[in-house]
Amino acid sequence: MIKVVFISPDGLTQHECNAEIGDTLLDVAQNNDIDIEGACEGNMACSTCHVIVEDAWFGKLPSPKLEENEMLDLAPGLCATSRLGCQIILAEAHDGLVVKLPKETANAGAW
Ligand code: FES
Description:
With 111 residues, the protein is an alpha+beta fold.
C-alpha cells in the first residue's frame, strides 16, 4: 500500500489516498471519488484522465508511450508534466506521488 496525493484544480485542496501497487492512478481516483472522468476506461481513447504531475515526480515515472503523448496533445491545459492517469501504473517507488487535476478536460477521443 502506498499513498498518492491529488490536488484540486484551484490548488486549494489536497486529497491523500491509499493505493495498491499495480493500480493505475485512474483506479485510485475513481476508488476515492476524485473528480477524474476516465471516459474510455483506460483505453487511451480520450483525455479525460489528464493529470498534471508535480515537477519533482515527473521524471520518476516511466516515459509515456507515443499513443499517450498523441492523446495528450488533444487535452486542454496541456503542461510539460501532463500524463494520462490511466497510463500511470503505480509501483512502490511512487509512494507520495503528487498530481494536480487540470482546470478542464475534454473527451478528445474519436468516439
Ligand atoms: S481514461 Fe481515457 S485515456 Fe485514460
